[in-house]
Amino acid sequence: MKKLVSAVTSLCMAATMIGSVVPAVTSAADAKKGFSIKAYADSDSKYASEGSKVTVSKEDIAAGDVTVPCAIYLSENTPDTEAFSVQLTVNSEDGDASGVKFKGYETSANYFANNKEFTTTAGTISTKKFMSFAGTVNSRGVYKPAGGTSILSVDDKQISAGTKNAYLGYTWTTTDTYKWLGDTSDKFPIVVFDVTIPQGSEGTYTLDFCNYNTDASGKNLNPSCMIENKDPGRFANYEGYLSNLDLNTMTIVVGDSAPATTTTTKTPTTTTTTAAPVVTTTTTAPSTGDAEISLDLGNYKVKPGQTFDVEVKIDCHNNAVSAGDVTYAIESPLEITELLDYSPALDDRDVMVNLATKKMNFTSLVDSEPSVIRSDDALMIVSVSVPENTPAGDYKISITDAKIFKGNRSATWNTEVLNGIITVEDDVTTTSTTTKATTTTTTTKTTSTTTTSKTTSRATTTTTAAATTTVTTTVLPATGTVEWVIPTVEAQPGDKVTMDVTVKGSSLSVAGAQFDVDAASPIEYNSATGSAAYDSTLVANNDTQEFAFGQGVGNGVTAKNDDVVLTLTYTVPNGTADGTYPVTWDNAFITDTNGLDVTDKVTLTDGAIIVKTPKFDGEIAWVLDKVTAKPGETVSLRAIVSDPDGAALPVAGAQFNINAASPIEYVSIDGTTAYDSKVVSNDSLKEFAFGNGVGNGVAAADGSVVLTLTYTVPDNCPAGEYPVKWSDAFISDTNGNSLTDQISLVDGLITVEDTTIEGEVTWTIPEKIARPGDVVEMEVLVSDSSVPGLPVAGAQFNINAADPIGYVAATGSSAYGDTLVANDSTKEFAFANVDGKGTAATDGSVVLKLTYTVPKDCKAGEYPVEWSNAFISDEYGRDITSMVKLVDGKIIVVEDTTTTTTTTSTTTTTSTTTTTTTSTTTSTTTSTTTTTSTTTSTTTSTTTTTSTTTSTTTSTTTTTTSTTTTTTTTTTTTVTTQEGAIIWRAETVTAKPGDTVKLNVKVVDNRNVGLKVGGAQFVINNASPIEYVSAEGSVAYDDTLVANDSTKEFAFADAMGSATAGANDADVITLTYKVPDDCAAGRYPVTIDNLFVSDENGIDISLKVIPEDGAIIVEVPTTTTTTTTTTTTTTTTTTTSTTTSTTTSTTSTTTTTTTTTTTTTTTTTTTTTTGTTTTIQPGAIVWRIDTVTAKPGDTVTLNMVVEDPNAVALKVGGAQFIIKGTSPIDYETADGSAAYGDTLVANHTNNEYAFANANGSSTVGADGANVITLTYKVPDDCAAGRYPVTISDLFVSDENGNDITSSIITYNGAIIIEAPTTTTTTTTTTTSTTTADATTTTTSTTTSTTTSGTTTTTSTTTADTTTTTTSTTTSTTTTTTSGTTTSDTTTTTTTTSGTTTSDTTTTTTSTTTSGTTTTTTTTTSGTTTTTTTSVVEVYAEIETTEGYYFSHDNGTRANGVEGGFSKNQITSIRLYNVLSNGETVEVDADPSKINFNGETPYTQYTARDHAGTPTRDEFIYNVPVYYQLDDTTNIQLRAKSTDGNAGEPLTIEAYIGVKGDTDLNNIVDSRDASAVLTYYANIMTDNYTPETRQLSTSKLVTGPDDKLDNLAALLADADSNEWAEDNWKLTRADRTNLETGAAIDSRDASYILTFYADRIATSNPIFSAMDDQQLWDYVVPSRFNS
To answer: Whole-angstrom Cα distance, residue 233 to residue 692?
Structure first.
């Protein structure tokens, strides 16, 4: 868990610190506190004395890794700190800090290899631990660090702390006072750690404090380095918060010259020790045998009056130990006076001690695992006192019970105990000049054993120097006798028995005793206390029933008769058979004052417990209810106690069966309150039982409830009586004796009532009129409902519309209060009441609403909509279909005729100033002779002579032309209606932003139907942001309009109850609307909905009034064009002489053409400047990307420029965006931002750019200033054309980080590549053809083209033409500057009826100026035969992958980012057309046209009911996939049809849930945060990996590979970027990147917990007013741009 670094230390501090962003007031004691990092001064390192700057020589770092022992010191004037947190890392500007490693040391761990002496305020201490800044030292000089809770965390990096280098975090909290161990707080460190620098890593390294807010939510301010004390006071060094914490860093310079060697001579320390009494300890030889653990107490030689320590050592024989429980005993008069509460062998770890029971308990886990305890030091220390008058001799100290545990508390090692011998020597001083070596061999006697240890006899050889004088004293056992009597008592099963063991015939002085007392099974031992008789405390081993007592000072006591030796308590279990159960003595050992055995002088008399079971009289009954029910109901039956005579029969338990007659269905059982126990059930066998938990019988009160049964009566259950019967019963009393015969079991009964129903109702599908392309909604209504109404509980049926009408959707059923379930593919529908009850619907209520589409190519006609396969049931599931009349409907399709008229008006104003002198002479002579006769012979002679001389001198010609062209297109649609119908048509009007506009709904009655209307009601809605103002009318029907302006509902009716026929073109209603000033250009529909029209008798005639929607069209911005033309013309003289002679009766044709061109030079220069005035909303500016011209091979720069026509002076603090060119143009670099005075940050790979003001302020970009300058390279082989340069993903903020993107309007630019220049010379062609069939074709074509930056191509193709004469002359010179592309196409088709010949002439002219290409193509084609096929089916094949989404995702994103379901879930798509000739053709599929028909995760999630216990399917959605064929046709993708049936809809699989809901119960609470923190802790250890660790705690999740766990990961990753392109597809295993933030970690847990706390903070009006998405935005403001 050491990788849970800063997250854990922060949470530790959060648990104790005040999470306030208001600076706290520090205590009066300390104005400042501080932390310092230094070399560890007490280490044995050569760097120990170098303080806060350490120098490592070049030689040392070259030789290998260098480790510098370091420490953190606390500086304070008053020891009043309650908590602190300190975090640090390593950095270097000239070295590689990433290779530096930290190693931390816990205060409880050994730091030094050998004991080191420290001089402290508590004296000189010798320890292997490092000395902490505060702690305690006990009377034996054992040091313990200050109490409290500390967490030391070390890692190679810690992203959340802002470092990728080594990290150390340390927190300490305490509720106790503490004392410094030095004279100042920084004499000793708070924590010690090593810094290891890799070999060869020269440079300067600084150990710096991490300084950041550990509360990731930002709501609280908890700096990472902080101290708190009680006042409350807080110490921190955090900008804008507090500056009362000194943070002193450390520097390690690696590679400087070796420092000068300093030699320190220590003055020898003289220690004066007062000699304690000599204790001689003899080490025994190791044990042998099958022991797995050995405990050795050692042998000792002492003098009377001494106190010494017995050191208990352990030999684990290489076995790992987790803990141990040990109990000691010592022979009198020696006493155990202290059990030391630490273990040297366990590095002075705490030992639990109980001096009264002589018990010690230790644990030896290392990193939560058992360890092998070292044998070179004492495991436990027992302090023993030898009284002054203790006789010389050997005294045993023993372990009476030893349990040494393996890995848990149930498994123990086989343990050998080597008891100790304490030899007390005679305290007599004898002087002798003669001494000799004396060898004494002592063999110990085994006096006791336990089940978990054994005592091994051993030979101990002790050699001492002794005097030649030997004193021998013989002591005899005490005299007298005594009897200890265990009584004999009577008891019943279930009783608790107390037995006093008493003294009889007492004359013996007893000092101590140990013995066993056992009761025969099944009597259960409880406890033992004593011994009052012998003035001592009984020690009881309750597990083995071994007991002992001893007089505290070793003196014997002669007890009084009837005094109590000890008191025993037992329990007689319920069910114990009658009989006598002995209670007997065993293994007794009793001693006198001198410890001598006097057991044979004590008579031990056994006792017994006599069990007798009482018998019960009387009878009671258990009576089952008799109830009445209806089919479909759930009923309860109780079993009631009947005890009218007060028999009070005590029942301890029972088992029995209870069965109800078929078809009654068992549900559950509950109880029993009468007998104070819980019924256990086997539901499948209907077997039940209960029993009192302690076996005692209970006498139930008369009328109390034995149990409660629940049954369901099936919906189709016939009326009748259904018995509920007892069987196979056995009932017992407290002692297990049968009471079955004394309890009468009375059966129950369920009577099912007859529920026959009557009534009838009609469900009618309406008739609707529609046009091709319409969407039709049809409400199926209830009518003719009987009284009382027919109660319908459920229904299922098909409704099909005739082809080609397309089904869209069905919803309902409001009439019956149920949710309609629709199978869209089969057109099967169903609904059912959730509680099974039937509902009688009222006339006019809606059974369901159907939605259909009429194809655009649908022919006029009637298309039935019909019921089929209906099954309708009542609340009992019975078929009532025959009682519901189902009336079919139809869709009547009518055709439209559309006429479009376009009028173009052009006004040209020319102002010309010309100075011209012209002289012209023209002479023309014409002579014509024509002769005609009936033989069809014609002679024509024509002579024309023209002579023209023109002399023109043009001095200056200036022409200014202003042209305004207005085109008005009027489209008139004539609707073909059915007989007797009229139209109410809403106008389509034009307006500009800021206008107030009126719009009429007019009567259209072209057939003069004269439909009389008595009244009407309807809704007229308008699209946002158009604002509704008012309405008036009705002129057409001479009635007063009633308007509800808030709901836009309108109505009128004739006051006299008569009817009026509205005249053609009369106004039904006049509406007034306001167009906002900032309204964007576009078409804003005005729709007529919910129309109901009636005649004078109130009869519905709505089908005879066809509503047509209108619109308000808001105009586009105004464009002004100014053109200047200069023309210079020279003189041209042309003489043409032509003679043509044609005789139709001959086959000879002669054509001569002579053209003489003297000089023709025409130069026309046209300069066109186009300026566009763009209307933008107030407060906005424009960023426009240039459009520039280039040639292949060019390098071109292009700017994005600020345009501020309204002088808004918008201040910008920063921006980020993407600008991309079009292939094959190559991007090279970008620079900026000159407009905003900031440095552009560019990601050249992704074309992402950003800038921000360095000091957090904002700048106004001047009009015309460059936001960014981009450089592109045009490839040498780049084709001519226009290559767009586009901006996307724009986000702009002000100086406070507020989003102002909406105030920036962007325009894309382009790079236009010019084509090469082409020059064409003059060509003259004369063709003369004579054919036998008198067909003559003469073609003369002259083309003269001069091109300047312009290419002109003229192509003429003639095919299958009988007689054609074509003469074409083209002369063009053009120079144009413009940013406009125009493409005009005109097509004329002529068809002669009765033939299959179609002649088509198509002329296409495409003109592009500024390096312009003009292409004129004329094609004439002859006989063409056309075969037409139609598409009869479109189907698709797709491959998909699953996606994960938030329930609040409604598809709305800022900056043009698309939300909702990702199209990328469809990994491939193939689209096919099936033609009417049977052929299947694959067509190109455009993935960008994939859509979901407006469905979003939000709409899908909210369409389901999420109340109650969630199911797995509740989180899985199959979302239909759609494809946009064109601007008006969006089709649902389906698989290929089979057997004439439509193919199955194609869907994607989406997983949707509530953000933060880790455990998938649709609720966000603290359990979700806990699950996240647990998961994070687990994956950060070495035991788990993200791939194998499950996150969600939900039972719905089957394992770590379950896709639901991936959904839980999305929901848990609270701070992930919701706008990230691939967030929808990340799995749980993908969310582990701590560095990028795409990870599930403690921050997410914190965010979820914060969200939960804010969500339930109902007293806070701010949070209460927020929806969940708004609250998440508040809690995690960075989740859209992390």
So the answer is: 58
